[in-house]
Amino acid sequence: MSVAALLTAGTLACHGFAATQGATQLVTVDSPGGPTATVSLWQRGGRCWRRAAGPWAAQLGRSGLSSHKREGDGSTPTGTYAFGETMYGIAPNPGVRFRYRRLRCGDWWDEDPSSKTYNTFRHVACGADPPFGGASEALWRVTPQYRYFAVIEYNIRPVVAGRGSAIFLHVAAGSTAGCVSLPEGRLVRLLRWLRPAAHPRIAITHT
């Protein structure tokens, strides 16, 4: 049974949930299969969780969910992850509490498994070719998806070559290459809700 289903049923509502690792905010992403999912926001008080928002319809990778994600397979990885300490966007900061970087020319995400900086944000001189290849993304050019996004810390510590990169929570524009996406208004609401001090997590599961 998915995390959201357990919470709704009360099975986990007033019990410990070790996978959140001390988080008091949780985003659940539950999919029955395929590229669609349901997103809910949860707040913990003491040992009990309550729904803060949702459920909302979301889009996943074109290949649905996978517990064995590989670079380029089009799947969204299952598991529970932290969010990156910096949020990004082509548009100005919408009022998030995390550190925010407004994207500009030369901002990339390295998606080249052979690169020493695989699965990290990189800035190179505007107009210069980056020293990495593969499917690396020129972030400032990807719109509307990257008007705003948070990094889902999949394959971060440690980074394993070829295990998948650039897993974001971003603006919806159909199925994704492996990210989770929401309509812009709901995404912005979610990003504003997240608090670094709450150590928020995102749990991606099959229903």
Give the key terms.
mainly beta; three-stranded antiparallel sheet; globular; single chain; 35% strand; 2 helices; nine-stranded mixed sheet; 207 residues
How does this model look, in words?
It is globular and about 50 Å long. It is built from 2 helices and 14 strands; from the N terminus they run H-E-E-E-E-E-E-E-E-E-E-E-E-E-H-E. The strands form 3 sheets. Strands 1, 2, 3, 6, 7, 11, 12, 13 and 14 form a 9-stranded mixed β-sheet that branches. It has a 3-stranded antiparallel β-sheet with strand order 9-8-10, with no helix packed on it. A two-stranded parallel ribbon has the order 4-5. The mean pLDDT is 93. The chain is mostly beta strands and 207 residues long. The protein has one domain.
